[in-house]
Amino acid sequence: MAGRNIHLSNASIFSSFLAVGFVLFFLPRPFTSKVSLFFHDALQPVLQIGRHDRMDTQRLAANPEDVVSGNKYRQLWKDYKNLSAQLLSLHEDYERLANLRSGLPQLSKEGLCIAQITGTSSNYSRELMIDKGENASVYPGQFVLSEQEDAIVGVVSESFKTVARVRLITDTMQTLEVHIRRDGTDTDIRAMMIGNGTGTCSISMIDRERDIRQGDTVYAAAVPDKLSIPLVTGEIIDVRADDQHPLLWKITVRPAEDMSRLNNVAVIIADKKLLKQSR
Fold first, then answer.
1. Is 15 in the same domain as 78?
2. What Cα–Cα distance (Å) separates residue 74 from each residue in 44, 148, 153?
3. What is the pTM of this model?
4. Could you tell me if residue 2 is inside a domain?
């Protein structure tokens, strides 16, 4: 009965906790660490109640339609880059652009020749052999697209009656005029790209004052009589100062297409007479 007559005021409770706080504050750290660890171990089972259930619920709540495979992501990425480049081209002088395109081959089914890759021409070079040649209007200098017709992968280097040789952009003998562009901008940085002989390409001779970053897109420049509009060819994966020329950038480009996965390609067919004049 005596216990029921004990009444603690709010001030008494506050003073008690304050006193305990001061005592803990001046205690040695090893002791307070043990106290903290004791409370953590004692209360951890209570704190864990429901956590795993919430995590499982979040996983189940993910929409499978929002998840795509790596190959699908790369396909969507290339489509987006190409559409961005074409959209920016529409903002240029319409009259000049219309006159330019009127005499150039367009990227349509009539201007393309689908060819199957039959092998490589050498174990040491980045060249492919395809099953279409002069009989299908395939000639040296024509651009070669990936099977999906959305990325530049090489250039026809030699053609015969029924077969042709394609030099990939990663070959050390292949140079390509390119434009470097960043998403959200309409400024192109012109450059020359050359293959590294492995799975990447290099861009050099660019002043370090130019703002170039990892993730910028590389487009093959439009060429009269060969390529009517810029097309994506790769993405910058490394930018660093050139050891031999400290005032210049040394840039590494990863092709937009995995060359080892190519089975078929599409050759952009240009008029043979115009092609000879532009070479």
1. no
2. 44, 12, 15
3. 0.63
4. no
Beta-carbon neighbour count of residue 245 at 10 Å? 13
- The secondary structure of residue 252, as a DSSP letter, is E
Token pair 């190959």: residue: 71
- For residue 54, give its domain range: 11-61
Rounded to the nearest 10 degrees, the angle between the axes of helix 70-90 and helix 94-102 is 110
Q: Say whether both 40 and 173 belong to one domain.
A: no
Tokens of 214: 């990892």
- Output b/e per residue, 85-111; b: 16+ Cβ within 10 A: beeeeeeeeeeeeeeeeeebbebeeee
In this structure, are strands 152-159 and 143-146 parallel, antiparallel, or unpaired?
antiparallel
Greatest Cα pair distance, the chain, in angstroms, is 114
Contacts of 15 (CB under 8 A, 6+ apart): none
How do residues 151-195 score in pLDDT, each as one tens digit?
999 999 999 999 999 999 999 999 999 999 988 887 899 999 999
Give the separation between CA 154 and CA 256, rounded to whole angstroms: 12
User: Element (H or E) spanning 218, and its range?
Assistant: strand 217-220
